[in-house]
């Protein structure tokens, strides 16, 4: 027998063994024992597959490498490290080796789904897998070191907007109350064995249809060709005037024919409000559970403890998986390194939500792109688009400060008890101090001086940190000291301080409080200069005028979204208080919307918001949209 023939025979035997192994894997769902453990030459096969996967990745054959990784995961399905490695490889290594937005997102999300849909269900008590999944949401989707991070943020925001809509832009309790109907236990069969087998559980839909109002509404929908499934959600997103949907639009929907008018009526008519609400709750809960593998009841539990989570941002989902890991695994001792790091990452999610947790989303996708907006796995062609027509703006959300402070105290008490240590040297000490220090600056920038003083006093009294930074009695002296220091703030914190100070100044302008406005604008400039010194081009903030324009536009279009109630007359006062350059850039962005608002209130738009000096002479490029919060 020739050497070549011997090699062919050896590879033939290996291929046969692999086929046998694959057959065993398919049988494992029907047996109680782990038959895969009995595969002959299993270790040899797995070693070969690892080598082959790495080689294919180096050659740029990513889909072939993916298939090999799939087989490794099947053969070692109860080894958490295998799932951890391959999800990381997809989300971090393979993704950055590709070049288009579609490819990048596909590989990042493949890493998410490998852990979420398969690794965790097969290893539900491995806290490391929950930690890894939370980390992908926190750092890969939620961070900004990847040069395509806005692609990931837009993709995730679009999915959750199309599924859940925008949260109410009011108090924390209003946000929680809006989500609460989805947590009704009667909407789901939570048997883990059937999770994901169907998009909508048929018996739960049948139970809902026993309600006479819902049955009548379903008949009305059927008459226009709509079933109670994800297609109803798509129609709802297209036509609804509900603020949760319309808040992201740049124009109101316009029915064009008889069928459009019929659907428009069914998704907006107040007489269908009750059954429509129950239908939406069922669909949203079912898709969360079966597609995104998230339990609405636990989501609500997290919101009750931590605040007004906007699920369109990646960080709340990262927080969900991190906390779920601790709960499911029963890993309660913070003396364990993995548990401690999992909780630290949970706090990192909350820190980012404090600095960048107020999201404004503008969805300018054409009607054709929105028609099939509900994205289910396998991902549709539409969902792989770069989505340039979806824009996101983020600002700080100080509603998180007190809940996060209380969460620190709760976990510190647990860690002190588990480790038998003292409060002043607890494992969360530095993170707690740094978080409160940032919150103090944000509160000070928002002119909430009493709250800032309270947290400053707490740090001094309970941690007694050394050095001149903490020797001031007045929080204002501390903040000014910090601005003069060489160790500049992190980017998220710097952005939030500048934007918060700018927002406080413009709200003061709207209320004709000129002294507060001037003081806040001065602080915004100081905070901006303190951060910019010595920064390279990649890490520098957008021009200060971009912050100014972005904040002014958002306050005039949707002040409630930022937590303020500003009638049109107040917004007109703000507009007139802007300098000429800012006014010139703001006007074209708000003109159409504010003109409609003035018409509804019988106000003369041209007198209320007069054309700025130089507007007619402005070049088109001067009027292009500004992205004030998105870093380069």
Oligomer: single chain
Give the neighbour order of strands across the main sheet: 1-2
Terminal Cα span = 64 Å
Element-level helix/strand string: HHHHHHHHHHHHHHHHHEHEHHHHHHHHHH
Number of helices: 28
Measured by DSSP, the beta-strand proportion falls in: under 5%
Which structural class fits the helix and strand makeup?
Answer: mainly alpha
Percent helix among the residues? 55-70%
Low-pLDDT parts are 22-38, 372-383, 618-632
Radius of gyration: 27 Å
Describe the main β-sheet briefly: 2 strands, antiparallel
Describe what this molecule looks like in 3D:
The protein is mostly helical. The chain has 4 domains: 3-124, no CATH class; 168-308, no CATH class; 401-483, no CATH class; 491-623, no CATH class. It contains 28 helices and 2 strands. It has helices at 3-27, 42-58, 62-75, 80-94, 101-122, 127-141, 149-164, 172-179, 202-208, 212-223, 230-239, 243-246, 258-268, 273-290, 296-306, 314-329, 337-356, 367-370, 401-419, 429-445, 449-462, 475-483, 491-510, 514-532, 544-557, 568-577, 580-600, 605-608; strands spanning 358-363, 390-395. The protein has a two-stranded antiparallel sheet. The longest helix has 25 residues, at 3-27.
């Amino acid at each position: 027998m020739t050497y070549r023939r011997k090699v062919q025979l050896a590879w033939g035997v290996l291929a046969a063994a692999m086929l046998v192994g694959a057959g065993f894997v398919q049988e494992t769902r029907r047996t109680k024992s782990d038959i895969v453990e009995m595969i002959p030459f299993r270790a040899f096969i797995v070693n070969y597959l690892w080598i082959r996967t790495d080689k294919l990745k180096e050659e740029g054959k990513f889909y072939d490498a993916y298939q090999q990784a799939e087989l490794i995961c099947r053969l070692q399905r109860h080894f958490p490290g295998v799932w951890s490695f391959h999800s990381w490889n997809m989300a971090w290594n393979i993704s950055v080796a590709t070049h288009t937005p579609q490819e990048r997102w596909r590989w990042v999300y493949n890493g998410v789904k490998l852990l979420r849909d398969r690794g965790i269900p097969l290893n539900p008590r491995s806290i490391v897998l929950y930690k890894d999944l939370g980390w992908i949401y926190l750092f890969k989707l939620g961070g900004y070191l990847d040069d395509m991070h806005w692609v990931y943020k837009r993709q995730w925001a679009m999915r959750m907007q199309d599924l859940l809509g925008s949260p109410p832009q009011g108090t924390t309790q209003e946000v929680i109350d809006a989500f609460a109907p989805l947590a009704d236990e009667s909407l789901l069969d939570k048997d883990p064995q059937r999770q994901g087998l169907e998009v909508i559980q048929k018996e739960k839909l049948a139970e809902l249809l026993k309600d006479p109002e819902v049955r009548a509404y379903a008949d009305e929908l059927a008459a226009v060709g709509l079933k109670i499934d994800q297609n109803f959600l798509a129609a709802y997103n297209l036509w609804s005037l509900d603020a949760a949907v319309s808040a992201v639009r740049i124009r109101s929907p316009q029915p064009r024919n008889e069928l459009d008018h019929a659907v428009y009526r069914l998704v907006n008519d107040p007489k269908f409000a009750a059954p429509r609400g129950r239908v939406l709750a069922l669909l949203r809960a079912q898709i969360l559970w079966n597609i995104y593998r998230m339990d609405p009841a636990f989501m609500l539990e997290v919101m009750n403890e931590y605040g007004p989570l906007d699920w369109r941002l990646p960080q709340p989902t990262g927080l969900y998986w991190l906390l779920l890991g601790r709960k499911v695994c029963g890993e309660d001792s913070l003396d364990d390194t993995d548990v401690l790091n999992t909780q630290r990452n949970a706090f990192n999610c909350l820190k980012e939500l404090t600095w960048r947790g107020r999201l404004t989303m503008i969805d300018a996708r054409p009607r054709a792109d929105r028609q099939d907006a509900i994205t289910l796995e396998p991902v549709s062609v539409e969902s792989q688009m770069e989505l340039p027509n979806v824009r996101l703006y983020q600002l700080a959300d100080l509603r998180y400060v007190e809940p996060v402070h209380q969460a620190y105290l709760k976990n510190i008490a647990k860690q002190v008890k588990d480790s038998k240590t003292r409060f002043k040297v607890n494992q969360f000490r530095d993170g707690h101090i740094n978080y409160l220090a940032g919150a103090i600056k944000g509160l000070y920038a928002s002119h909430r001086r009493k709250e800032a003083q309270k947290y400053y006093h707490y740090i001094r009294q309970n941690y007694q940190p050394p050095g001149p930074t903490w020797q001031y009695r007045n929080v204002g002296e501390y903040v000014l000291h910090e601005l003069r220091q060489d160790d500049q703030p992190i980017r998220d914190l710097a952005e939030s301080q500048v934007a918060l100070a700018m927002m406080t100044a413009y709200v003061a302008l709207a209320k004709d409080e000129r002294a507060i406005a001037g003081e806040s604008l001065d602080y915004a400039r100081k905070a901006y200069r303190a951060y910019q010194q010595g920064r390279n081009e990649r890490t520098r903030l957008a021009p200060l005028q971009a912050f100014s324009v972005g904040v002014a536009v958002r306050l005039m279009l949707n002040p409630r979204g930022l937590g303020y109630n500003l009638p049109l007359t107040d917004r007109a006062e703000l507009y007139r208080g802007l300098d000429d350059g800012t006014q010139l850039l703001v006007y074209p962005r708000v003109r159409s919307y504010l003109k409609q608002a003035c018409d509804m209130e019988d106000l003369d738009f041209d007198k209320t918001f007069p054309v700025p000096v130089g507007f007619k002479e402005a070049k088109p490029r001067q009027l292009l949209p500004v992205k004030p919060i998105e870093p380069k």
